[in-house]
Amino acid sequence: MPSLLYKSLTDYNSPLFRTQFLNVSAASPPSPPPPNRNLSCRITSQSMSCSSETPLPTLRTVTIPYYELKDKDADLSLKIEEGFGPNGLGILSITDVPEFPSLRRNLLCLSSRLAALPEDVKKELEDPQSRYNFGWSHGKEQLESGKPDLLKGSFYANPLIDVPTNDTYLIQRYPSYCGANIWPLAALPELEVAFKALGKLIFDVGLMVAYHCDQYVSRGMKMRKDEGLEQILLRSRCHKGRLLYYFPAQLSNHEENGDSMSSWCGWHTDHGSLTGLTCAMFKRNDVEISCPDSAAGLYIRTRSGEIVKATFGENEIAYQIGETTEILSQGYLCATPHGVRAPKGKEASGVDRSTFALFMQPDWYVNRRWDEKLNFLFNCRDEKLKFSEDVYIHKEVFNAEVLLFQLIPSNDSLTFGEYSEMLLDKYYHEKT
């Protein structure tokens, strides 16, 4: 799910990183920041096609073999820090995950078939009530310019739970998360099977990543067992998968927008907890090809403000930190702004792109129950993001990547659902 560009302030003694999740006291002494590590050894300079012809650095993601990840006794703190820490890119990848290559291919090959369905069929898959965050979405999301995004189509679904709740109040209050999945059961029945299979695998591996993140963070800050990233994701019903299809663009469109670092996906920072990503699949005339432009791909803005290209293998699952986890971890795990650059040039004409992302997120509300004496629903515990006086969240991105910030009211707190609905207002129409 898209979010807005976020600029993090890296003064760990400032009130920004005293921002807490749940019951960690904002008044407690600040934990020492994780040690700095120089990542220059992983940077290689490649000449990339851009307006200034300036070479841009390329970074290979930190990788962790699956066999190491699943070992709970393994000490992966150095790799977690290198990938997710203050000097990292906010991304790492997992290699050699059983069944992943076939599950990835099965789903990504369906994206073009989904996009090619008759318009009346795709219309039935739309859900305006959720601001198009369930089912099919095309031209509903706004780009950085404020114009509708017509470059790509998306299909959203929760791969773990078809109907997360029957509570009418919650469905109306948090339609982007509490709605039900919409599957093309008649037109493309294989989509549900492939979507759920890949989504569940990325979720299960993501829980292993979260476990090792908790082990790393717990060395620098105190947290209860149920406050860790792994437990927050386990009890959540909010997870959302997004199958993306970038339509083949004509040469003129590539020439017009190809120089932009975010020509295929605007600059943003994921606002959830942990995002699982597949490597993109490129096709021309339904035949799989390699990416026709070495400058195309995922770009990340580092903590020092440098823009670099991040790469990972076709058969690897990449994971990116979201800003909710940055808040939860007091900055030990860091989210980074990123965008996707489209290929340009003659070779890119007529090429489409497919990929899949799983947004792993906290619950919107936890443990709502009926109180028979008082005769109303109340919250036994909420997943609250608590903001101190000096905490800014991102508000909007304009051209030239100028940042504006919105100040959260002093000592205010929001549930993840409230926070998400506020951010989605910037990218979708207001609730119907």
UniProtKB/TrEMBL annotation:
Put simply, this protein is called Fe2OG dioxygenase domain-containing protein
- What InterPro entries does the record tag this protein with? IPNS-like_sf, Oxoglu/Fe-dep_dioxygenase_dom
- Taxonomy, superkingdom: Eukaryota
- Which terms in the Gene Ontology molecular function aspect does this entry carry? metal ion binding; oxidoreductase activity
Spell out where the chain crosses the membrane.
none
Domain Fe2OG dioxygenase, chain residue ranges per copy: 245-362
Decide whether keyword Lipid metabolism is in the record.
no
Q: What are the UniProt keywords, alphabetically?
A: Iron, Metal-binding, Oxidoreductase
Similarity field = Belongs to the iron/ascorbate-dependent oxidoreductase family.
The opening ranks of the lineage are:
Eukaryota, Viridiplantae, Streptophyta, Embryophyta, Tracheophyta
